[in-house]
Amino acid sequence: MIRFHDLRKAGATRILLVDDHPIVREGLAESINREPDLVVCAQADGHSEALQAIERAKPELVVVDLMLKNSSGLELIKDIRARWPKMFILVVSMHDEVLYAERVLRAGAHGYITKQEATRDILLALRRVITGGIYLNERTASTILARLAAQPNAPADSIADLLAERELEVFELIGRGLSTREIAGQLRIEIKTVDTYRARIKDKLNLNTSSELLQLAIRWNKDR
After folding, report:
1. Direct distance between the N- and C-terminal alpha carbons of the chain, in angstroms, rounded to an integer
2. Which secondary-structure segment (H or E) carries 39?
3. Per-residue pLDDT tens for 135-182?
4. I want to staple 135 with a disulfide (CB 3.0 to 4.6 A). Which of 99, 109, 127, 128 is the partner?
């Protein structure tokens, strides 16, 4: 689904919203459009729709959720960065920022903020990114910097580094106690696909049983 807007504001920064929850998009669009210097030029709910919207609506900034219809927001960020290297990208998501913020920045985004934050903070993040800055909240920025300072040359062998984006999402949800069916519903993928991810995770982490996978996922969630 793509929705284009025809709001005209002289000199306003054009923004594309990419989220597969219409209520979330509409609420954020309403808040943004009340600002004199910002305007939502289009909305999209998936990967291919977002790329089409960029081609047609010519936004200057794209707001992306990490969980999209039939796709990962991280993959969309990488595709946008490859095709439009000067495009500003801000992630607004429900995912744990300490876990995903570093991956988002590596993929090419310019900031990360959770949906739980106040609207004024999201608007602050938008303006920070538009002016060429990087936006992370203070706690997340401190955590990332502390990790880099403590292990500047550490090999990429942590669980977060070993697993691909979708695998990490499944692993996190396993640790929260969700069943395969519940994970499939939350990520909007087939149950068989979840089973495939579970098998890949066990292989990458050298786990033999589903019980070992569950115990490690629970412990990992608690330790973060």
Report:
1. 36
2. strand 38-44
3. 988 877 777 676 656 654 444 447 877 888 888 889 989 988 888 999
4. 128
Indicate where the chain has its CATH 1.10.10.10 domain(s): 159-223
pLDDT digits (tens, 9 = 90+) for 68-106: 877 788 889 999 999 999 999 999 988 777 778 888 888
Max CA distance (Å), the chain: 60
Asked: is 159-223 a CATH 1.10.10.10 domain? The reply is yes
* Closest residue by Cα to residue 69 from 32, 20, 27: 20
Domain at 2-143, CATH homologous superfamily: Response regulator (3.40.50.2300)
List all residues 6 or more positions away from 115 whose beta carbon is below 8 Å from its beta carbon: 24, 92, 93, 94
